[in-house]
Amino acid sequence: MLPCYVMLDLETTGGNAVHDRITEIAAVRIENGIETARWTTLVNPGVRIPPFIQSLTGISDAMVENAPSFDEVARTLLDILEGAVFVAHNVRFDHSFVLNELARLDIALKVKTLCTVRLSRKLYPQHKGHGLDAILQRYGLHTLARHRAMGDVEVVLQWLKIASDEVGEAMLRRTALELLQGSASLPPQLETTISDIPDSPGVYLFYGEGALPLYIGKSVNMRTRVMSHFQSAAKLAREMRILTEIRRVEWIETAGELGALLLESRLVKEKQPVYNRQLRREKALCAWQLHDDPQAKPLVKLVQLDDLVADQWSQLYGTYRSKRQATGALRTLAEAHGLCPQVLGLESGKGPCFSCQTGRCKGACAGREPLAIHRLRVQMALAQQRLQAWPHPGRIAIREYQAQTGRTDIHVFEQWCHIATVNDPGELEALTQTHQALAFDLDTYRLLQKRLSLGLGRDPALFRLNATVGQPE
User: CATH code for 194-271?
Assistant: First the structure.
C-alpha cells in the first residue's frame, strides 16, 4: 500500500483524548509489503477504567494494574513509528490520544497519518458502512479479539489484502497517496470534499445527521479555517465532539469580513447551532432608562429594547439579557458611587435607606443630598454604558469588494440595525423606498461602533444613501 507504514490501534478509558487515557497499544510495521515489527502491550492508565469500557474491551483494572505506564512504553512506540506513516481505522482517534500522551511528556510527534476508514470510502463508495464491524460483515471476516488492539489491527490488515486483490495494488497505493496529501486529518465520516470549500471570505456550516447545523463559523479564508477545526481537535474537547458528529460542510461566500460577521450573527440566531454559544439568540434585551425628573421614584426604569422606537435607544444605558443581570449591574454601580438604592428603586421603604445608615449612601433618601445632584451623579455613573446615538441622519452603506472572486457586497444600515445586503448598486434605490421595523441587535451595534469610528469621508468604503433617489451622495 505505502512504502513504510505502521498499522496501529489503541484501547482507551473513553473517547475524549484530552481527559481519557490509553489502556492498550498494538502496532505492526510494514516495509515494502513485508512485516518487519510487531508489538503490543497493555498500559496502566493511572485511572479507573469505566465498567462499560471494561465490558466492551475485556480489559479490567486488574489486568492493567501491573502494566507499564505510557511514559515507560513511549520510546518503544516512537521507535516503531520512526520514518513510517501512522495508519489506523479512524486515525484521528488514535493519533489524538498518542499526541496527548506524548505532550504530557513534552514530546512532539511529527508523523504523517492515513485513515483506513477514508480509504474504504474512496475505494468502495457504493457501500454505506465503513467501520470495522461493517467490514467484518461484508467480507465474512472473523476475529476472537474484537475491541482488543491487536485483534483490530489484524482485521484491518486482512481487509487491506482483500482490497489489494479486488481493486489492484496500484489503485490501492494511488488512493492511499492521494489521502496522504493533507487530508488524513479529516474526520473519516466527512462527506464533503475539502478542496471544494473556497479559500475566500464567508460563512461555513457544519452538519451532522440532522437538518440543523452543529456549528456555524466565519472566516476570510473558509477552507483554512475549516481545516484548523480538524487540526485542533486533538487538543480541544469541543472540537473533538464536533468532529465525531460532523457529516458535511456547507458554505456561503461573502465579499469580505464584515459581510461574513453579519451573516454569521444572523444565521446563528436563526438556526441556534448547539456548539455556538457566543452569538446564540438572547432573550429580549433590556436597558435602564433614566427619568428626566430628579424627583421621580424610582429614578431609573428597566425597559425592553423591543418596546422602544429606534430614536429612543440613545436615552438608554447598558444592554442586559435579564432583569437579574440588569439589577445586579445597577446595584454594583450604586455601591461604587455611593448612590441611593431606595431612590433607584433597588429597595423599598421611606426615610433613610440602609446604605445611608451605614455611610454608603450620601443621603438623597434623607434629604441630605439634593435630588438634582443625585440624578447628575447617577447619570455620570451610567455614562460609560450609554447607547450611542446613531451618528447619521439616515441610512448608510458599506461597500466590500473581493478581488479574488470579483464579488461586491453593499451592506445597508440604519439606527445601528442591518437593513439588508445587496450585490448590485441598482438595488439600493428599492431599499430607500422601503420602511421596516428596526430590531436592535447587540452584536451588530458593537460591530458598527468599531467600523464607523473613522466616519464618512475617511472610510472610502462608507457612504450615505440619498433617501430620495437611493443613490450614494
Answer: 3.40.1440.10
pLDDT tens for each residue of 87-103: 999 888 898 899 889 98
Contact 99, 234 (CB under 8 A): yes
What are the structural domain ranges in the chain?
4-180, 194-271, 286-385, 396-464
Q: For 77-144, list the strands marked E by DSSP.
A: 85-88, 113-115
**Long-range pairs of 216-221 with CB within 8 A, sequence gap ≥ 24:** 216/264, 216/267, 216/268, 216/271, 216/273, 216/276, 217/264, 218/257, 218/260, 218/261, 218/263, 218/264, 219/260, 220/256, 220/257, 220/260
What pTM value is reported for the model? 0.58
Phi-psi region of 304 (alpha: psi -120 to 50; beta: other; left: phi over 0): beta
Of 425, 435, 437, 426, nearest in space to 398 by CA: 425
Which CATH number among 3.40.50.11190, 2.40.400.10, 1.10.4030.10, 3.30.420.10 corresponds to the domain 4-180? Answer: 3.30.420.10
Helix locations, 237-291, DSSP H: 237-245, 257-271
Predicted confidence (pLDDT) per residue in 389-435, tens digit:
788 888 888 999 888 788 899 999 888 888 889 887 777 777 766 67
The pLDDT tens digits of the residues spanning 293-324 come to 999 989 999 988 777 666 677 778 988 888 99
